[in-house]
Design brief:
Number of strands: 11
Oligomer: single chain
Structural class: alpha/beta
Shape: elongated
Helix content: 40-55%
Number of helices: 23
Strand content: 5-15%
Length: 547
């Protein structure tokens, strides 16, 4: 007896109605994505690469023959002096002396040697075009606020302005022959990110500094990456874990011809040259009132971090978003794949709150799958593009077929009709605008691979809702078709037996709840996971079986 896993689709699948689509977009197992205006890219320089205006061309010529040579000359003279003093001050200082958990405060005599360098460093903003920095408010004492937190735009300017405070930085900076001595002299907390325990060690080090008055105040940029200042992105919680009062500081760069943010596509060299070549840059620094956490915020650092993030965002008059440093890696990966950088910006923290176990490596894999569908590299796909991509794949492997092509003799199970694909596409299109962008695609693939909050249950709900259309049940033919896709070569008797098992109330059809319970019962023996039930779609993430 041969296999009877033939196609039953030509009359069985129904295109999802608009009302059903609207309902599906509110399903609890799908991550809630940010508003469209919140899904812009705060990690790209706003003026780099733009066509210069006549005024900017004239300014470049004037600065190029006057200020630029002078600025470079003064930097070339003063920088070796600063670094030499820092090197002298750290002479004989061992690595264990600078250990974030067991190190000792910098002795007064070493600080005295480094003091002239501190004064010279304070002049560098002037060389970079900041003729005057407007300061509002006052810096709190160590007793009032052991920790200072600020938004991160320039990196260099903010670091120089707050140079006297101990910063949290990567361990590589400590080993750098240029920056290392300066980091050591400011009692920086150097973090080894290759150490799996680095996050916990950093929290312990910050807590230790807060409790030991011999150390200077700890300065932290909790965004973890420079932005262009159009938003205050997600704060990491390290600065807030000790539960001590913090002073928020807002760095505001008024709108100007040159964007001073140290963001893509600028590197250290092009960034410094860009700043040297600017006639004038503008900066306002506002020391905000000390933020004292409530008892609930002391118990919940995430809540504490969100509160301080909101205070800084309000002071700057910009939105607070769920973007994170991981968005930078994805936006650069999107650029390398020939898509707009914005397509890789997914508000990583927002997704992390709704998905579990998704890594940047997983997201990059899904991004490559998305690019294989998005042939034009627009960063979004409509239904025709989605279906056309699978038709191209069908030339070498069957992924779909039209209803009129169905045949009782067809033995291929990994095929999809246009109507089936429409159901899948509509559920991916959470915004309901007729397009699926990478953020929506990543969420759908993650849920299907068991990374939703409801994990396996969520993925099976996704399968049912995308393929059942506007119906509330599967017929026996529909269930047979799903089973044949997941488990090829089942016999007719086996299919009948499995349907009777799935139809628990004996009404001749399989409801959503019955389907989920049935699939979970056979998760191990038949492998009824979502990625197998939708075998043939490009929905893999991480190690998986062939789907």
């Amino acid at each position: 007896k041969g296999s009877v896993c033939t196609s039953f689709r030509h009359t069985l699948w129904h295109k999802m109605q608009p009302a059903a689509s609207a309902m599906d977009r509110k399903l609890s197992y799908m991550p809630l994505l940010g508003a469209e205006e919140e899904r812009t890219n705060p990690f790209v320089n706003l003026t780099a690469g733009k066509k210069p205006t006549l005024c900017s061309k004239v300014s470049c010529v004037v600065v190029g023959v006057t200020l630029l040579p002078l600025r470079i000359l003064l930097t070339a003279i003063s920088l070796p002096v600063c670094l030499g003093l820092a090197k002298l001050a750290t002479l004989g200082l061992k690595d264990e002396d600078c250990d974030p958990l067991n190190g000792i405060p910098i002795p007064a005599w070493r600080r005295a040697i480094f003091a002239p360098a501190m004064l010279l460093f304070r002049c560098y903003p002037l060389l970079l075009g900041f003729w005057r920095i407007k300061v509002k408010g006052r810096c709190a004492s160590r007793e009032e606020a052991p920790v200072i937190v600020a938004n991160h735009v320039s990196g260099i300017i903010e670091g120089i302005f707050l140079l006297k405070y101990a910063k949290v930085a990567e361990k590589e900076y400590g080993a750098n022959p240029v920056i290392g001595p300066v980091m050591k002299m400011t009692s920086a907390i150097l973090v080894d990110r290759s150490d799996p325990q680095s996050r916990e060690k950093t929290k312990q080090a910050i807590a230790r500094r807060c409790a030991d008055s011999r150390f200077p105040q700890t300065m932290i940029f909790p965004e973890g990456s420079c932005t262009n200042g159009t938003a205050v992105v997600q704060f990491k919680i390290g600065a807030f874990a000790p539960g001590v009062p913090v002073q928020p500081v807002a760095f505001r760069y008024p709108k100007q011809a040159n964007d001073p943010s140290f963001t893509y596509p600028l590197n250290s060299g092009t960034y410094l040259l860009n700043m040297f070549w600017s006639f004038a840059n503008y900066l306002e620094v506002e020391y905000l009132p000390v933020y004292k956490p409530s008892d609930e915020e002391k118990r919940n650092p995430k809540l504490f971090a969100a509160g301080v993030q909101r205070v800084i965002a309000t002071a700057l008059g910009v939105p607070m978003t769920k973007h994170a440093a991981e968005d930078v890696a994805l936006s650069i990966a999107a650029k390398k794949l020939g898509m707009p950088m914005e397509s890789g910006v997914v508000q990583w923290q927002l997704l992390s709150e709704s998905l579990t176990g998704v890594t940047v490596r997983d997201a990059k894999q899904v991004l490559e799958q998305f690019r294989s569908i998005d042939k034009e590299g627009k960063g979004k796909i409509d239904f025709e593009t989605f279906a056309a991509a699978l038709r191209r794949k069908a030339r070498t492997g069957s992924f779909m077929r039209r209803p009129e092509e169905s045949s009782p003799l067809d033995r291929d199970q990994s095929v999809f009709t246009d109507e089936e694909l429409r159901g899948v596409f509509d559920l991916l299109d959470t915004s309901g605008n007729g397009y699926v962008d990478f953020q929506e695609y990543l969420c759908g693939v993650a849920v299907l691979n068991g990374h939703g909050k409801q994990e396996q249950t969520a993925s099976l709900k996704w399968v049912f809702d995308s393929l059942a259309g506007d119906k509330m049940h599967f017929t026996q033919e529909q269930l047979d078709d799903l089973l044949c896709r997941a488990v090829p070569h089942l016999e007719r008797e086996q299919l009948d037996e499995l349907f009777r098992e799935a139809d628990r109330n004996g009404d001749g059809q399989v409801s959503r709840e019955e389907f989920i319970a049935f699939a979970q019962d056979h998760y191990e023996d038949l492998g009824l996971k979502a990625t197998r039930l939708l075998r043939g779609l490009p929905i893999s993430m991480g190690p998986s079986d062939s789907v």
